Amino acid sequence: MLFSEASLPKTNALSELSADEWWKSAVVYQIYPRSFQDSNGDGFGDLQGIRSRLGYLKELGVDVLWLSPIYRSPQADNGYDISDYQDIDPVFGTMKDFDQLIADVHALGMKLVMDLVVNHTSDEHPWFLESRSSVDNPKRDWYYWRDPRPGFEGGTPGAEPTNWESFFSGPAWKYDPATGQYYLHLFAEQQPDLNWENPEVRQAVYEMMRWWLDRGVDGFRMDVINLISKVPGLPDGTPAPGRALADGSPFYMEGPRLHEFLQEMHREVFVGRGALFTVGETPGVLLENAHLYSDPARREVNMIFQFEHVILGLPEGKFGRRTLEEGDLADCLTRWQEGLAERGWNSLYLCNHDQPRTVSRFGDEKYWYDSATALATALHLLRGTPYVYQGEELGMSNTVFEGIEDFEDIESTNYYRLAVERGEDPQTVLSGLRAMGRDNARTPVQWDGSAHAGFTTGTPWIVLNPNYPVINASEQVGDPTSVFAYFKALIELRHRLAVVANGSFERIDAGSREIFAYRRVLGERELIVIANLSSRDAQPSLPSDISEAAPEFVPVLTNANVWEEMDAPLAPWRARVFLA
Question: Which residue of 68, 148, 181, 489 could cross-link 3, Cys pair, CB 3.0 to 4.6 Å?
Answer without folding.
Answer: 489
